[in-house]
Design a protein that fits this description.
By secondary structure, the protein is mostly helical. 74% of the residues lie in helices and 6% in strands.
Length: 410
């Protein structure tokens, strides 16, 4: 039996927080219902909501850029779906979520959305005023739910979609933590050797007046350059980053970078699989929620980050608009794997296209996880070897100089 922290509300909209001992979350839900409460959020005590340690880098950058983090939007969506399923009207549910929201920026957004809804606006129109928090994809999903009278079901699917996407992003970020940490530690170690340790030896060698080995002379010259002209390196790196950002900001530059990324061994295949999984999950979720396939394809094309894949999807959109099935232009695009094409074809033939797209997404998200594991398993020893070679060159160069001192006549 474990402890679970809960947030719940009653029919009057009053928020209650507390801790309950139970065997599972389902048992907590039953206990809260017996108490007359509507559960909003339940998490295992001592966890972070997902039960794992999570370096939420994306959320931190989101706060710095004054954007609502994806994780906050996901929690808002799941909580709103829970309250609507419990029978609360939209305005009452939104007023409850104002108190539940932890970030002030999100509180302000929900409060403004509540005012708009109370003034007679549709929820989708009120959310559309905040494109940095709620994407076109999100707003169109809500709009489809309102038009079909299935807003609660659409919100549930939206919550599942956002949770699935967040889990994949968190997995990739978590997998990259150790390589990035290794790179930083190795880089700092090399900088310390070049700027603090080697200069001490250079004084000794210069006083001796002995001809140094070539590798030692190169190392001492590089160390002296790094200490005296470090600012040149900073300027060069800054210009390189600025130039890259300017180049990437242009449509033709972004296209060339994406083309290059897809040609890199292992990395290119990983990029392709990530985009295939994103395409399948997004399109499947939209179609399942009642969005027409042409509108869904347009939205997916805007969401896809890789311009090579997005360009292919634009051609797919044109072919489907002309009356083709989805599977035919996808196969002609040459980007999507044959297994995905076959599954989509089966979905079209059986009238279960949305379900097959979601299965494709599940399969290729697993593939992405396996590819990330393989890539990291290659990167870690490669980085250790590279750092070892650099540090080894420094150490051997210094030792050769020290041993050469034994040949000096005294």
């Amino acid at each position: 039996m474990g402890a679970y922290t809960y947030k719940a509300t009653d029919s009057a909209g009053v928020i209650y927080k507390g801790v309950l001992d139970a065997e599972s979350e389902k048992e907590v839900v039953v206990k809260l219902h017996d108490m007359g409460y509507i559960p909003i959020r339940i998490t295992a005590s001592g966890g972070s909501g997902a039960g794992v340690l999570n370096f939420d880098i994306g959320s931190r950058f989101g706060m710095l850029l004054r954007r609502v983090a994806t994780k906050d939007v996901m929690l808002f969506t799941q909580d709103l779906a829970t309250l609507l399923e419990a029978g609360l009207p939209v305005d009452r549910a939104l007023s409850v979520l104002i108190d539940v929201a932890e970030k002030k920026q999100l509180k302000d957004i929900i409060a403004d959305v509540l005012k708009a809804v109370q003034g007679g606006s549709y929820l989708s129109d009120a959310l559309a005023k905040y494109p940095r928090a709620f994407s076109d994809f999100y707003v169109n999903m809500i709009r489809a739910g309102e038009a079909g009278g299935v807003l609660e079901a659409v919100l549930i699917r939206l919550g599942e979609f956002l949770e699935s996407s967040q889990e994949l992003q968190d997995y990739i970020k978590s997998a990259l933590v150790y390589p990035v940490f290794l790179l930083l530690v190795g880089g700092v170690s090399i900088i310390v050797l070049l700027t603090f340790v080697i200069p001490k030896f250079s004084i000794i060698f210069s006083d001796m007046g002995q001809t140094l080995p070539l590798s030692t002379a190169i190392l001492l010259a590089f160390s002296q350059y790094a200490r005296q002209f470090w600012w040149v390196g900073v300027i060069v790196v800054g210009l390189a980053v600025y130039g890259y950002r300017r180049f990437r900001g242009r449509p033709e530059g972004r296209l060339k970078i994406d083309q290059l990324s897809m040609r890199i061994p292992m990395v290119g295949h990983l990029v392709k699989m990530v985009e295939v999984a994103r395409f399948a999950r997004t399109l499947g979720t939209l179609i399942k929620s009642g969005v027409p396939i042409l509108e869904a394809l347009r939205l997916v094309t805007e969401i896809i980050g890789n311009k090579v894949v997005a360009g292919s999807l634009a051609l797919v959109y044109d072919r489907v608009k002309e009356g083709d099935r989805l599977s035919s232009p996808l196969a002609a695009a040459g980007i999507f794997p044959s297994l995905a094409i076959q599954m989509i074809t089966v979905g079209e033939e059986t009238g279960r296209l949305d379900q097959m797209l979601l299965k494709v997404a599940d399969n290729y998200e697993k593939t992405v996880r396996n590819l990330v594991k393989r890539l990291i398993s290659f990167l870690e020893p490669a980085m250790i070897l590279l750092m070892g070679l650099v540090v080894g060159f420094i150490v051997i160069s210094m030792l050769m100089a020290i041993f050469s001192l034994n040949d000096m006549p005294f």
